[in-house]
Design a protein that fits this description.
By secondary structure, the chain is of the alpha/beta class. The chain has 14 helices and eleven strands. It has a seven-stranded mixed beta sheet with strand order 1-2-9-6-5-3-4, with helices on both faces. A two-stranded antiparallel sheet has the order 7-8. Strand 3, helix 2 and strand 4 form a beta-alpha-beta unit. Helix 6 packs parallel to helix 11 and helix 10 packs across helix 13. The protein is globular, with a radius of gyration of 20 Å.
Length: 368
């Protein structure tokens, strides 16, 4: 069934729509700007060197057609741009464009662009409105929804940031058609994550449609994006600031972020790192007695079907001790351990606080 809109229900009138559009995003972005930020007179479009040449001109034309004087800030594509240096440059561009507190920032790109645009909007004039127009599958199924914005630090991933909700999310089906295959797989990893933590039927449907999803066939992809947004919208509405059940959305991320830090941001895509982290989470779930034997093999098999990395024993990957050391600065960690997202089964995510000694004992025993 085709879904045109899902609402993220937040208090104090801060809820917003996720709108699914079949064509290019420009007209829908402009319409959302006029509806959701009616007082705006200027806009800063944040994009990157991959997406900008393809789609920025169309979005700029639509915004200008809606009487928004629009400037463009284009960052270098890739995780290396997710830094305070880029934030400073984006804010400089916004100020030189004379954006005021009642104006608008638009994110046109994947997860990195969304982080830079959202965090810049959060700190500019102590908060200006922004709209997400995600162009990657990963951003459409996950990162564009929920208001988490931030940048990386040498000590770890996403350690500097803010919660800043968009006024609208515009998900265009057409822009996905220019994605490289690796980026498609990256998004499918995050989609599977949603299924494993909350929706066993999503996992089953995805595995039945592997080829269609990898080819980006319109109907199955649209259904997958909507299903993931529905899951995330419900979680965010219940726990906007990550104090409770929203932590479940971090399935695979504790060791996933550690992989990214150790291997080098960009050497593994975020989705690839999360895929490996999900295998570790399934292994921990079995060893901790939460899940029946065979869950790790099931998760690894699903990831393999989508062409994602799943062999955590691969010789070119960091081992358990290195991953634990890198995860000590994880946002879910405390002095003696970490709040891990584990699984009781497919579609049944839970959190458990485990000491690092316990994690090392459980995972080390697996490798003896």
């Amino acid at each position: 069934m085709t879904v045109s809109e899902i609402q993220v229900a937040l208090g104090a009138g801060r809820g917003y729509p996720i709108r699914f559009v079949p064509g290019l995003p420009g007209p829908a972005v402009a319409a959302a700007a006029r509806e959701r930020v009616p007082g705006a007179r200027r806009a800063l479009l944040v994009t990157d060197s991959n997406v900008g040449p393809l789609y920025a001109a169309g979005v700029v034309a639509s915004l200008q057609g809606a009487s928004l004087a629009t400037e463009v800030f284009e960052l270098a594509a890739g995780e290396a741009s997710k830094s305070l240096t880029t934030i400073g440059a984006a804010v400089d561009r916004a100020l030189s464009a004379r954006l005021l507190r009642g104006d608008l920032v638009v994110a046109l790109g994947g997860g990195v662009v969304g982080d830079i645009a959202g965090f810049s909007a959060a700190i500019l004039h102590r908060g200006v409105a922004f709209i997400q127009a995600p162009t990657s599958l990963l951003a459409q199924v996950d990162s564009a929804v929920g208001g988490k914005t931030g940048v990386n630090h040498a000590a770890g991933k996403n350690l500097i940031g803010a919660f800043w909700q968009p006024r609208a999310v515009i998900s265009s089906a057409e822009v996905l058609q220019t994605l490289p295959a690796r980026e498609v797989r990256c998004g499918l990893a995050e989609a599977l994550k949603h299924g494993y933590l909350a929706d066993a039927a999503l996992v089953a449907r995805s595995l039945a449609r592997v080829d269609a999803l990898r080819r980006l066939e319109a109907e199955p992809v649209a259904e997958l994006v909507a299903d993931c947004c529905r899951i995330k919208a419900a979680v965010v509405a219940a726990d906007e600031r990550d104090h409770g059940q929203r932590v479940l959305l971090n399935l695979g991320h504790t060791f996933g972020h550690a992989y990214e830090r150790l291997v080098g941001y960009g050497a593994l895509t975020h989705g690839e790192a999360v895929a490996l982290g999900m295998v570790w989470a399934a292994r921990l779930s079995e060893r901790e007695g939460l899940a029946a034997a065979g869950l790790e093999a099931e998760v690894a098999g699903a990831l393999a079907a989508f062409g994602l990395p799943h062999d955590v024993a691969a010789p070119d990957l960091p081992g358990v001790d290195a991953l634990i050391e890198a995860a000590l600065t994880d946002k879910k960690a405390d002095a003696g351990g970490v709040r891990f997202v584990l699984l009781e089964g497919v579609g049944r995510g839970v959190t458990r606080r485990l000491s690092w000694d316990r994690v090392r004992a459980l995972l080390g025993a697996a490798d003896d």
